[in-house]
Write a structure and sequence with these properties.
Elements: H1 2-38, H2 41-46, E1 49-50, H3 65-71, E2 77-79, H4 84-97, E3 105-108, H5 121-125, H6 130-146, E4 151-152, H7 176-191, E5 205-209, H8 228-235, H9 237-244, E6 249-252, E7 256-257, E8 260-261, H10 266-276, E9 282-284, H11 292-296, H12 301-311, E10 316-317, H13 321-331, H14 337-353, H15 366-371, H16 376-389, E11 391-395, E12 406-411, H17 437-445, E13 449-454, H18 463-468, H19 483-495, E14 499-505, H20 524-535, E15 540-545, H21 553-558, E16 561-566, H22 572-580, E17 647-649, E18 653-654, E19 658-659, E20 665-673, E21 679-689, E22 700-709, E23 714-721, E24 728-729, E25 735-736, E26 740-747, E27 753-760
Parallel strand pairs: 1-10, 2-3, 3-4, 5-6, 6-9, 12-13, 12-14, 14-15, 15-16, 19-27
Antiparallel strand pairs: 7-8, 11-16, 17-20, 18-20, 20-23, 21-22, 21-26, 24-25, 26-27
Helix pairs in contact: 1-14, 6-7, 6-16, 7-9, 12-13, 16-22, 17-22, 19-20
């Protein structure tokens, strides 16, 4: 009887929810129908216009150039204004001085935190902790909305297998399944239950749709060309997962797909996104995405603007192509009134859902800005998450953790840089408030030891390259001393020390947009410095700052300890001290493969076999798929990361050796902490479809769970496997599962796994 009551209650709740949604939609439609009936053509097109406001000075909104367009109803939203007072001033112009008083939408690149910065997205992915990722987005939404921002151009979910590409730092790595789970977590954090019922949830914008991470040669904005079967099986899932999570908006990518710039691709923007996946939000271009199609060679501004609108673009960021050419295109029959009305409606629907028509100032409570931004609680969470994003790549002779005693030499161009800690695309973070690595180590060691600092080298030998890699206020105060003088200072410090902490690697703008590299190793003079530090014979801990997978062959063979810290956000440096002194046991796992050298790229774990595969563990064999000069193996595989303790895995136990099309089986392992300290482990599930109607990868991530184990403790981790988990896109792009044998692999990374087999009947 109790079960019947619960079931009836659930059905009633679902029915009431559906009725409420239908009622809300009907009310919204009536409101927008009425509003649009009053709008002129110019005002409708104005809603599609998203110019960049620059940083309007408080009190100057009414006299700015953009204000005139707002008064005329020619602006739908603005981005890149920081400060609730400024935003409120601009909104006042829209709702008090324009004819129809339609509020604006205000956006910003809130990528990995607002003022409280979290690790760069690639670092967040390394936590493999969806709850932590959701909390980071929740805090970012709270802070941004307290400062008047309620639309973020995040999450970026572009799958990338080419670490030469600078924007790999902004994504979640090489795997679509992991990327999809992160997309869902981020959207939950930003949007909550998607009702925007309070003023602390903001609208997300998944980007860059589609395939932006697969640019040729790892060069930003470059051509993308791949089969559709590869698109759907290897790249598209994170976008689809975002849509399933209810993301409010989508950003088109810069690149072309199938010979057509994504911004003009009706197949992408309408056929797949809306008709196949059921997306019901609005689509915005990337910065000047419409006007850039002129350089792609598919038409002048009028032509590319018409093509974008017809494809399914709703809002034009910066180009003003829609604003300036659509009236003419409408007269000439290149677009229809229905095309314009549809795009206008989608923008108005977003504003309605956000609650702006009921209260245009909903997100402009000036009191919140004083109490909810950059708070001690938010910074504490950022520190915790940063420490869990760091990946211990090597730890020979248990060099780490260090003891809080003795003399520590902290050396390197990144050791005393506060402004590089936050990482790329941290536009609202107060960079100068971050602690440096030197300061954090000094604070951790206290009176029990001594810290000696030496810069040791510049970022790179070439001053011009250093300028390019330290833009947007990320300068490293280039030292004009000679290379030899800098090195001597570092070696003198090393001689006085018991241990050397070398803070080396990339500056924050060495990765990110338009920051592609052909050499992804530690830069020249820094590498020379590291070699000399190792020669001293003192224990060396390499604290590696990186916005991408890097080539570290020499380092892996010669440096006792390597801790990859990405760029950890506002609290990066204190979190580094937490880990290297053992207050936190590192638990990060790589979301992307680290190659041995750049010639192996693209290198990724979920590759396919050739007809002549090289046996695992082998190097060169004639007439096999391999290289003469390097093995096929990565330096560090996907999912890899060490701990200050050790974990053992039992064999995989399957609840059944067979699975039918309506059934489910369980795969379990027992994981034991065999070391002496408590630690966290990411237990990873991979599956291989042995025989398919099309070729299938050697393994694919299909599940993971992060667990905490005390020394000597064991835990059984179980994964449910059903036919839905085994589906893929076949030759005809049908999403299917096929009967046959499957290998189940469970382990602590993609290479070191235990295997069992079942059959799908």
């Amino acid at each position: 009887m109790k079960k019947l009551f619960i079931g009836a209650f659930c059905l009633l709740s679902l029915s009431l929810s559906a009725q409420n949604n239908a009622s809300n939609n009907a009310e919204m439609n009536r409101f927008i129908d009425d509003l649009m009936s009053k709008m002129t053509l110019e005002e409708k097109i104005g809603q599609l216009n998203l110019p960049s406001a620059g940083d309007i000075t408080t009190g100057q909104a009414k006299s700015s150039d953009i204000a005139e367009k707002i008064k005329q109803g020619l602006v739908g939203g603005l981005f890149n204004i920081k400060g609730v007072d400024k935003i409120r001033d601009v909104q006042r112009v829209a709702v008090e001085e324009s004819r129809l008083k339609i509020p604006l939408i205000f956006g910003m690149d809130v990528i990995h935190g607002y003022e409280t910065g979290f690790p760069i997205p690639l670092g967040m992915a390394a936590t493999w902790d969806m709850q932590a990722i959701e909390r980071s987005a929740r805090i970012a939404a709270t802070e941004a909305s307290a400062d008047g921002i309620f639309w973020t151009f995040s999450p970026m979910v572009d799958v990338s297998r080419d670490p030469r590409w600078g924007r790999v730092s902004e994504g979640n790595g090489e795997d679509p399944f992991l990327g999809g789970q992160i997309a869902k977590a981020m959207i939950r954090g930003y949007q909550g239950d998607n009702t925007y019922s309070d003023n602390k949830h903001i609208m997300a914008c998944v980007k860059h749709y589609a395939l932006y991470g697969a640019s040729e040669a790892g060069r930003d904005y470059n051509t993308v060309d791949m089969s559709r079967i590869r698109m759907f099986n290897e790249y598209m899932y994170p976008y689809k997962a975002a849509v399933e999570a209810g993301v409010g908006s989508v950003m088109a990518s810069f690149n072309e797909v199938d010979g057509v710039p994504a911004t003009a691709s009706k197949w992408l923007m309408t056929d797949v996104l809306r008709k196949q996946w059921g997306f019901d939000g609005f689509v915005v271009t990337d910065y000047t995405g419409i006007s850039e199609m002129i350089e792609h060679g598919i038409g002048d501004l009028q032509e590319v603007s018409a093509r974008a609108l017809k494809a399914g673009i709703d809002m034009d960021m910066v180009s003003e192509g829609l604003l300036t050419t659509l009236p003419k295109s409408l007269k000439e029959g290149k677009v229809s009134q229905a095309d314009i009305d549809q795009a206008c409606r989608r923008i108005l629907e977003a504003k309605y859902k956000l609650g702006l028509f009921k209260d245009p100032y909903k997100y402009m409570d000036t009191k919140r800005a004083k109490t909810e931004i950059y708070t001690p609680a938010n910074l504490a969470e950022a520190r915790k998450i940063a420490s869990e994003s760091y990946v211990l790549l090597r730890n020979a002779n248990n060099t780490l953790p260090l003891k809080k005693q003795g003399t520590v030499a902290v050396v390197g161009p990144l050791a005393k840089s506060a402004v590089n800690m936050a990482g790329t695309w941290s536009v609202a973070v107060p960079l100068d408030k971050s602690a440096t690595v030197v300061e954090s180590i000094e604070q951790a060691i206290g009176k029990n030891g001594k810290v000696i600092y030496a810069k040791g080298s510049n970022l790179v030998a070439d001053a011009t390259l250093e300028n390019h890699a330290t833009m947007f206020g990320r300068g490293l105060n280039r030292d004009n001393r000679t290379k030899e003088q800098l090195l001597k200072e570092a070696l003198d410090a090393a001689k006085q020390s018991d241990v050397i902490v070398a803070a080396l690697g990339e500056s924050s703008e060495f990765s990110g947009e338009a920051s592609s590299r052909t050499d992804i190793g530690i830069p020249d003079v820094q590498k020379e410095l590291l070699i000399e530090l190792v020669k001293t014979g003192k224990p060396v801990v390499l604290v590696l700052f990186a916005g991408r997978p890097m080539t570290l062959n020499w380092e892996n063979e010669n440096v006792p300890a390597i801790l990859n810290v990405w760029f950890g956000g506002s609290m990066a440096a204190p979190a580094i001290a937490d880990v290297i002194f053992g207050d936190v046991n590192p638990s990060g796992k790589l979301p992307a493969t680290f190659p041995q050298n750049v010639g192996q790229i693209p290198l990724f774990y979920n590759h396919k076999n050739t007809g002549r595969p090289l046996a695992e563990g082998k190097w060169f064999e004639k007439f096999r798929s391999n290289y003469l000069d390097v093995s096929n193996d990565p330096l560090y595989p996907f999912g890899y990361g060490l701990s200050y303790t050790q974990f053992s895995y039992s064999d995989v136990n399957l609840s059944s050796a067979t699975l039918d099309e309506n059934g489910e089986i369980t795969a379990s392992v027992t994981v034991t902490n065999t070391g002496k300290v408590e630690g966290k482990e990411v237990v990873q599930l991979y599956i291989r479809d042995i025989v398919g109607s099309v070729t299938r990868p050697v393994k694919e991530l299909k599940g993971f769970e992060k667990i905490a184990l005390k020394a000597g403790e064991s835990k059984t981790v179980s994964f449910k496997i059903n036919p839905e988990l085994l589906k893929f896109y076949n030759y005809d792009l049908e999403y299917v599962f096929e009967p046959g044998d499957f290998d189940v692999m469970i382990g602590g990374d993609s290479k070191d796994v235990k295997t069992a087999r079942f059959t799908l009947k």
